[in-house]
Write a structure and sequence with these properties.
By secondary structure, the protein is an alpha/beta fold. The protein folds into three domains: 61 residues, no CATH class; 123 residues, Trna Endonuclease, Chain: A, domain 1; 55 residues, DNA polymerase, domain 1. 50% of the residues lie in helices and 18% in strands. It has 13 helices and ten strands. The strands form three sheets. A five-stranded mixed beta sheet has the order 4-5-6-8-10, with helices on both faces. A three-stranded mixed beta sheet has the order 2-1-3. Strand 5 and strand 6 form a beta hairpin. It is globular, with a radius of gyration of 20 Å. The two termini are 36 Å apart.
């Protein structure tokens, strides 16, 4: 049986991949295996990975469903890229960096707006965030070339030590090879393989606000008021009550407490 990926590619259905994805959401392996066993009779040749994701998400509950939905949660930070840039800055803060977002810097030839500027010890890096509104899209070689060219223009004038390319999806093989060749760090979904954006989010418990279930208008209200992380809901709970209805605020805060306590 073949499945259709978000990119349009077809591949043989591998139940182990689905089991692994569910396990990463915090579900014990035997329970994840049981879920896939229940799911398999409902699958058919040509089913999309999106439909498989939807069915699994319906079977999960509470914090497990939220963790499983991290990739979609990052997507819901859009459609513009600013919320994603702020989220990445908060993720790097958890790694011990001082961060500034959307800085205008003088290059040797022209000025550049840098999405995130990082500093830690002698390290000073520029981060270029590429946000995709389609999970099937990848950062290609042109984007990698563009980011490194900007770094070369800024390197000497701003005393930068390295460039970093970050995306909410994946990178093409050529983009990864080029980045590795020139010494440019990349961060994306499962990139690097064992330390991608999903791994860092789980390691530091830096989860986007959009992992919580809420009405779209409430989500927009919170994002517009600079609530980026689930933890922001807890640390600024009084503001949540001021911005939203009492019922909505209580439900969102309850979800945040459950997710952050597990």
């Amino acid at each position: 049986m073949q499945v259709i990926k978000r990119s349009g590619e077809r591949e043989e259905f591998d139940p182990n991949k689905t089991i692994s994805a569910i396990v990463r959401a915090g579900v014990p392996k035997d329970e994840a295996t049981r879920i896939v066993q229940v799911l398999e009779p409902q699958l058919y040749d040509g089913i999309t990975t999106e439909e498989i994701y939807r069915q699994v998400h319906q079977m999960l509950k509470g914090h497990n469903a939220a963790h499983y939905g991290l990739k979609k949660a990052l997507l819901r930070l859009g459609p513009e890229g600013e919320n994603f840039e702020t989220y990445i800055a908060r993720l790097f803060q958890a790694e011990g960096y001082l961060t500034k977002t959307r800085q205008i810097l003088n290059g040797k030839c022209v000025k550049h707006e840098v999405d995130v500027l990082l500093a830690r010890g002698r390290e000073k890096a520029m981060v270029e965030c590429k946000f995709h509104n389609d999970l099937g899209l990848k950062c290609n070689i042109q984007i990698a070339l563009y980011v490194y060219a900007r770094f070369l223009d800024l390197r000497d004038t701003e005393m930068l030590t390295k460039p970093i390319l970050v995306t909410n999806t994946r990178l093409s093989l050529d983009a990864q090879r080029y980045a590795n060749c020139v010494g440019m760090k990349v961060l994306g979904w499962k990139t690097p393989q064992e330390n991608g954006i999903e791994s860092l989010a789980s390691k530091h418990r830096v989860f986007p606000l959009t992992m919580l279930e809420m009405r779209h208008r409430d989500q927009i209200t919170l994002l517009e008021n600079h609530f980026i992380l689930v933890n922001d809901v807890l640390s600024r709970s009084r503001e949540v009550y001021l911005l939203l209805s009492k019922d909505s605020a209580e439900d969102i805060i309850s979800q945040a407490m459950e997710l952050m306590s597990t």
